[in-house]
């Protein structure tokens, strides 16, 4: 077991907010619901971020937007807003902070066609003047730190992250997070962690590196390549809300933490499932939770070095009632435990 302590910067400070550590959970639409964020925070993530919330919808008190922005029970509640209208962004920020958000994050990195088609998310990387106006309006609207999440640029010929980060800092942004891909890459290829170093060189506020952190050793490699102050974990936490906490422990001590037992993983999966049903109601919750059950089963299979039981995984992901879903989940974990012991 390695006990060599990896290098990481001094404790992260975001405006006046100081997370417990420098390993953050990324905002992921349809993934980082309140129940997931609570588990990730409890198991050691330094900070967790809400799903992306449309600013106009939150400002108009839309029910789904409100649920996405919910943060009760979190020590540090961060709401990520998306949009391209400074007035709506400012009003949504006021609503979020009024409801308890300690930090407001602005999405300038989502590559989804639906978001980009509305000229939000990473489309703002092609409109830096508008992007800066959005940041300025949000900073002016609230007495809370405002952060920005971006990609490197729209494509390889337009790498604008260093410039946007500089301009964001000039408008009062307290931190920037950079996903090491362009929008044109979506999630293909490999994130370029070394390209994030140019952003770190351009600003004095904290810089967070994001993209492809899926194993403990990725964290040390990402920090070394990017010179970032912190790391953010997205898809690597799907089905493993404890993973950011494990990375934080590894970076602090140099010791590789053991994976949670299958029994613990199953208990967390059930806790998350119940939380989704509480948040969204039974009918919507059952549908919303399906992908999560598949990811939990995949994580359990990875833990024991076995293939996921495809039939039981399919049963869990297609179940139309909580009872059927949880029964299939239980059978999947039991099967994996039996295989591991054989």
From TrEMBL:
CDD domains registered for this protein in UniProt: DUS_like_FMN
Alphabetical keyword list: Flavoprotein, FMN, NADP, Nucleotide-binding, Oxidoreductase, RNA-binding, tRNA processing, tRNA-binding
Tagged with keyword RNA-binding: yes
The keyword Nucleotidyltransferase is assigned to this record: no
This enzyme's EC code(s): 1.3.1.-
Domain DUS-like FMN-binding stretches: 24-306
Pfam families linked: Dus
Catalytic activity field: a 5,6-dihydrouridine in tRNA + NADP(+) = a uridine in tRNA + NADPH + H(+); a 5,6-dihydrouridine in tRNA + NAD(+) = a uridine in tRNA + NADH + H(+)
Cofactor(s) listed in the protein's UniProt record: FMN
Residues annotated as binding FMN: 80, 149, 179, 234-235
GO function term, MF aspect, one: tRNA binding
Catalytic machinery residues: 110
Database matches in InterPro entries: Aldolase_TIM (IPR013785), DUS-like_FMN-bd (IPR035587), DUS_fam (IPR001269), DusB-like (IPR004652), tRNA-dHydroUridine_Synthase_C (IPR024036), tRNA_hU_synthase_CS (IPR018517)
Domain of life: Bacteria
Role summary: Catalyzes the synthesis of 5,6-dihydrouridine (D), a modified base found in the D-loop of most tRNAs, via the reduction of the C5-C6 double bond in target uridines.
PANTHER family, alphabetized: TRNA-DIHYDROURIDINE(47) SYNTHASE [NAD(P)(+)]-LIKE (PTHR45846:SF1)
Family of the protein in this entry: Belongs to the dus family.
Full protein name: tRNA-dihydrouridine synthase
GN (gene name): dusB
């Amino acid at each position: 077991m390695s006990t060599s302590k990896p290098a990481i910067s001094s404790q992260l400070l975001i405006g006046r907010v100081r997370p417990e550590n420098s390993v953050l959970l990324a905002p992921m639409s349809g993934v980082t619901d309140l129940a997931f964020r609570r588990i990730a925070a409890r198991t050691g993530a330094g900070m967790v971020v809400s799903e992306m919330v449309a600013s106009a919808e939150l400002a108009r008190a839309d029910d789904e937007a409100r649920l996405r922005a919910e943060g009760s029970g979190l020590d540090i509640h961060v709401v990520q807003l998306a949009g391209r209208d400074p007035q709506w962004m400012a009003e949504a920020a006021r609503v979020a902070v009024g409801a308890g958000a300690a930090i407001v994050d602005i999405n300038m990195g989502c590559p989804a066609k639906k978001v980009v088609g509305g000229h939000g998310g990473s489309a703002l990387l092609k409109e830096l003047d508008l992007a800066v106006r959005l940041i300025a309006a949000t900073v002016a609207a609230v007495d809370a730190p405002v952060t920005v999440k971006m990609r490197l640029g729209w494509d390889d010929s337009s790498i604008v992250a260093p410039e946007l980060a500089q301009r964001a800092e000039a408008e009062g942004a307290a931190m920037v997070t950079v996903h090491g891909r362009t929008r044109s890459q979506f999630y293909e290829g490999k994130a370029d962690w070394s390209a994030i170093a140019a952003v770190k060189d351009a600003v004095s506020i904290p810089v967070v590196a994001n993209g492809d952190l899926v194993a403990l050793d990725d964290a040390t490699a990402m920090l070394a390549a990017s010179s970032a102050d912190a790391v953010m974990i997205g898809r690597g936490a799907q089905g493993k809300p404890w993973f950011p906490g494990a990375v934080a422990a590894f970076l602090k001590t140099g010791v590789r933490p053991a994976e949670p037992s299958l029994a613990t993983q199953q208990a967390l999966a059930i806790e998350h499932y119940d939380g989704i049903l509480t948040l969204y109601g039974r009918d919507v919750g059952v549908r919303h939770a399906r992908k999560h059950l598949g990811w939990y089963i995949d994580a359990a299979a990875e833990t024991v070095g076995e293939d996921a039981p495809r039939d039981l995984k399919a049963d869990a992901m297609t179940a139309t009632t909580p009872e059927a879903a949880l029964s299939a989940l239980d059978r999947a974990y039991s099967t994996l435990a039996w295989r591991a012991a054989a």
